[in-house]
Target: Bestrophin homolog
Amino acid sequence: MTVSYQYDVASSASGGFIRLLFRWRGSVWKVVYREMLLFCACYIILSLLYNFALTDSQQRIFERIVYFCSTFMDLIPLSFMLGFYVSFIAARWWSQFIAIPWPDNSMTRIQMFTPERRVVVESLHAGVKKGRNECAERLSTQHREFPLEKLVICKESCSALIMMKVEVFKMRYR
Model:
C-alpha cells in the first residue's frame, strides 16, 4: 500500500518527523510491532528473573553465560553478514531489472530505419507494447496484476490490424 507523506514532510512544524514516525498507516511500526513486542516481553521476563528469582551465585553464572555469548558475537561481525545479505538482495533485484523487456531499443531502431512513415512506426510501436504486456501477463505469478482488458494500447494510433490481433488473442487464451 502506497501512502503519500509529501505534504506532511514539507511542513515546517516542530516535531513533524516524530509525528510522521508514529503515524500508523504505512508505518514502519506496522511491520515490526510483533517482533518488538516479543523482544520487549523476553527482555522483561529475563530482567525479572535476574533481579528477583536468581540468587547471587546464579546471577554470576548468568553473567558468565552472557559474557560467553557476547564474545562469540564478535567473531563474525554483523556488518560482514549484512554485506553478504545486501549484495545478495542487490544482485537479485538487478537480475529482475535486467529481465524486464524494454521496448526503447527496438523502437529507436525501428524509427531509424523507417523514416517518414509514421503510420508504420506507430503500428509497430503498438505491437511492441502489446507484446511486452502479453509477456508480462504470461510471466506474472499473480495473473490479476496484468489483465488483458487493460492493455496499454492507444486506440487512436493503433491500426485496425493490431486491434484485431488483440481480439484474436483474447478469444484464444481466455
Summary: Residues 150-157 have pLDDT under 50 and may be disordered. Helices lie at 6-10, 16-21, 28-53, 56-73, 78-99, 104-113, 118-139, 160-173. The chain has eight helices and no strands. Residues 1-53 form one domain.
